Amino acid sequence: MACKGRILQLQHYSVNDGEGIRTIVFFAGCPLHCRWCANPEGYTPENQILFIASRCVQCGRCTAVCPQHIGWDLNDAAARHACIGCGACVDVCLEKARTHTVAEYTVKEIVEKLASQQLFFRNSGGGVTYSGGECTSQSQFLSELVDAVYDMGLDQAIETSGFFDLSLLRPVLDKIDLLFIDIKLMDREKHKQYTGVDNSLILRNIAEIGTHRTGVVIRVPTIIGINGDDENIRKTARFVKTHLQDPKMELLPYHSYGADKYMQLGMTYDESSFGTPSEEDMARLNAIIESEGVTVVSYR
């Protein structure tokens, strides 16, 4: 049986996360649970049901087909806990108040969709970017997909947390043209506090990757009150300068675009804890990076 990937979304016509026009393949599942994540549906590889309460007319169709006998209000804590994500309710919801988060694809199915975009890729110098969630958490499927896209001759990029077994992923990374790796925080304990894991493996992987290749960009999701301070950015830049052959960084200012998803998944989200950096903040932090001998780049 062909290996199947659990995918959140295939986003065509993107001009972010690599050169040219791209298709972004968002993988489900992630070993990190960053408190500010814009894609919280990607925490798990399992399907969940997004519930948009404002669309619901309480018709009862969902309750009639639910094997768990859950009521219409999926924002109710007990209902959400009981939901098994089977999706029976999605199929009968006429108001589109419920949607799946995950779909299964074979490599062949994704390749067919990418083939329809090749004109855009070729004319713009674009290609495919693997993101998530965390694409490396489905290492077998990622490996098979990367091999297939490599045979198509397309540019490939990966956007990753860096939290993976490098010995397992090295053959995959060798076929990747551009590698984006996040460093959320340099402080080990704060990293664990805000993401659920410490950063030892991430930093070790970056240092090892940096000795073998170029084409690496370190990204920092920049959040005032968490990691958007001068000290953290300077420490990050110094680490990047030390360990990458061609040191590059990109600061990604925090946004709250994913806040609605938390409500639709019955999750809490404390937006007050996270601050968006101003243009002045970004200019100052980018100047610090450059002062440490690291090139500031932008793929946004």
Can you describe what's shown?
Residues 47-77, 83-103 form the 4Fe-4S ferredoxin-type domain. GO terms for molecular function: 4 iron, 4 sulfur cluster binding; metal ion binding; oxidoreductase activity. Keywords: 4Fe-4S, Iron, Iron-sulfur, Metal-binding, Oxidoreductase, S-adenosyl-L-methionine. The chain folds into two domains: 4-44 and 102-296, TIM Barrel (Alpha-Beta Barrel), CATH 3.20.20.70; 49-99, Alpha-Beta Plaits (2-Layer Sandwich). The model has no long low-confidence stretch (mean pLDDT 96). The chain is globular and about 60 Å long. The strands form two sheets. A nine-stranded mixed beta sheet has the order 5-1-2-6-7-8-9-10-11. A two-stranded antiparallel ribbon has the order 3-4. It has helices at 61-65, 77-82, 88-92, 107-115, 118-124, 139-151, 166-173, 188-195, 200-210, 230-243, 259-264, 279-291, and strands at 4-14, 22-27, 49-51, 98-100, 103-106, 127-132, 155-160, 178-182, 216-222, 248-253, 295-296. It is built from twelve helices and eleven strands. The two termini are 38 Å apart. Helices cover 35% and strands 20% of the residues. The protein has 300 residues and is of the alpha/beta class. The longest helix has 14 residues, at 230-243.
